[in-house]
Amino acid sequence: MASLVWKLLALATVTAAQATNTNLRTTFPTATSTTNLAAVRTIAAGQSFDGGNLQWDRGPSTCNGQSEGGEKDAVFILQHGATLSNVIIGPNNGEGVHCKGACTLNNVWWTDVCEDAATFRQTGASDISYVNGGGARNADDKVFQHNGAGTVIVSNFFASNVGKLYRSCGNCGTQYARRSEFRNVKVEKTKVVAGVNGNLGDRTAVRNSCLLGGAGDCWRYDGNNSGNEPVKVGSGPDGVVCVTEGIRTSGC
Q1: pLDDT tens, position by position, 190-249
Q2: Domain limits of the chain?
Q3: What are the strands, taking DSSP E only, across the chain?
Q4: Which UniProt keywords are present, listed alphabetically (predicted)?
Q5: CA distance 21 to 42
Q6: What is the pairing mode between strands 118-120 and 83-89?
Q7: Which terminal residue of the chain has fewer beta carbons within 10 Å of its beta carbon, N or C?
Q8: 3: left (phi > 0), else alpha (psi -120 to 50), else beta?
């Protein structure tokens, strides 16, 4: 009997993994229920959490607009190597997801972004975080904030009514030469896919993606570590800081 139970549990785990849809989709899912967390939930290093395609929120906490928050305002904190899958982040939070190291987000949706949907704080130059599938809407400023080192790769993601899909921190006290790549993303009612600091060695690529309504592919900034507002110095691909290929602006 014990052997049968373990086999059934193993089959259920495989089935759940196969059910994770990381294809590009443009319809936001509707959750059947919401879990309100009294405090941020931490996913340990190397561990995985499957949210069951339900909505996850933060108890009485509410969004304070673009006021800078921190980990305490997040719904999930992911330690290095953690994976978060099949989660709908509700509107009742300040920060969404914080990745304290390289992380993977599979089929994660943000229904109403507050300050940031996800913040990447990995420390190693070789660390890579992945966003596979999912989507975000209603972000006054940015969806993905890259404060740490390494690379962020976003694939098959949908964004609607946001400022920037991604921003490499323009004025963090500690700066890095960051890398980012966007593959088969679709944005609408959006200003730009990526904002990066060319003077600090940032590099980004936008490939095979759909940019509707005049959305830009890349804005280039002169970043700093003094806390001052970074200066925008250019836009569009330059073949070095920003590379693009396969960009569509209609019919997609």
Answers
A1: 999 999 999 999 999 999 999 999 999 999 999 999 999 999 999 999 999 999 999 999
A2: 42-245
A3: 34-36, 41-43, 48-57, 74-78, 83-89, 96-99, 104-110, 118-120, 128-132, 135-146, 151-155, 158-168, 179-183, 186-197, 203-207, 210-211, 216-222, 231-235, 242-245
A4: Calcium, Lyase, Secreted, Signal
A5: 23
A6: unpaired
A7: N
A8: alpha
Size (the chain), residues: 252
Give 200's DSSP letter: G
User: Both tokens of residue 46?
Assistant: 């190397």
Radius of gyration of the chain (CA): 18
**Range 151-186 burial, b when 16+ CB lie within 10 A, else e:** bbbbbbbbbbebbbbbbbbbebeebbebbbbbbbbb
Q: What is the largest CA-CA distance in the chain?
A: 67
